Amino acid sequence: MKLLSPDELEAALRDIGAKRYHRLHPFHALLHGGKCTKGQVQAWALNRYYYQAMIPIKDASLIARCEDSAIRREWRSRLVDHDGEREGEGGIARWLKLTDGLGLDRDYVTSLRGLLPGTRFAVEAYVHFVREKTLLEAIASSLTELFSPVIIGERMAGMLANYDFVTRETLSYFDKRPPQAERDADFALDYVKRNAKTPEQQAQVLAALEFKCGVLWSMLDALYHAYVDPKLAPPGAFVTSDP
Asked: What Cα–Cα distance (Å) separates residue 172 from each residue in 43, 75, 143?
């Protein structure tokens, strides 16, 4: 691999998103197009909760190994975004309002008893990646946020138009995410463009984003296999009330 200019590196990163981001997964086409049953939407929200809940743990592990105070200050905003400044605030609390609105018992959701093994493995692989790889790779793995505003817009419009059991309040988690994601992605993109100075480092950055896209894709693979086709949810996983 030849050394890319910063703009060429950004173009390569965006090309990965265009080809690998989970917006392209068949489950999202069903979810956003109104083709999911309520039980399938519940299963998606319940499993996605684990990802949301582990994001601040992932971010705290990045902060703990970062010697640059400027990066630590920047990254702390992500903890506040998800955990809030106090009880009942932040993205995790808003996600639980989503699962509440879908009729899921909150204690059941947070207990993780109904979690798909595929979800657990994917999320924990991401946490381990951030803990174990270089800081450059850890930051690069967050760059899926470059692409999240588009999928959020599609999700809000599609779900509100197609599901009578979903309200704007139910989906309030997504109201704040586009500007947060844009802020975070701008910082991470600038960081990797400035700090990936060798072909080897640039290859690591690209591989890190591919890995993160794979994490998100595999979570939807698990949902599709368990609840759509062939509907083989593993023992102990959430059971829908769909006919």
From this structure: 18, 23, 23
pLDDT band for position 88 (cuts 50, 70, 90): confident
Among residues 7, 18, 5, the alpha carbon closest in space to that of 150 is found at 18
In a domain, 235, yes or no: no
CA distance between the termini of the chain: 53
Give the C-alpha separation, 84 to 81, whole Å. Answer: 6
Q: What is the CATH number of the domain that holds 195?
A: 1.20.910.10
How far apart are the C-alpha atoms of 57 and 141, rounded to whole Å? 15
| Residue at 73 is within a domain | yes
Please give the C-alpha separations between residue 208 and each of 19, 38, 138, 227, in angstroms, as whole numbers: 15, 34, 7, 29
Residue with tokens 């319940």: 46
**Collapsing DSSP states into helix, strand and coil, what is residue 114?**
coil
Rounded distance between C-alpha atoms, residue 102 and residue 21, angstroms: 26
pTM check: above 0.90: yes
| Residue range 166-182, pLDDT digits in tens | 999 999 999 889 899 99
CB 56 within 8 A of CB 93: no
Residue 131 lies in a domain: yes
Tokens, residue 172: 């309030």
Kindly report, residue by residue over 6-39, the tens digit of the pLDDT. 999 999 999 999 999 999 999 999 999 999 999 9
Identify whether 223 is part of a domain: yes
Instruction: Tell me which residue range forms the domain holding 89.
Output: 9-228
- What lies within 8 Å, CB to CB, of 20 at 6+ separation is 210, 213, 214, 217
Query: Is residue 46 a contact partner of residue 173, using CB atoms and an 8 Å limit?
Result: no
φ/ψ of residue 147, rounded to 5: -105, -5
Does the pLDDT of residue 243 top 90, yes or no? no
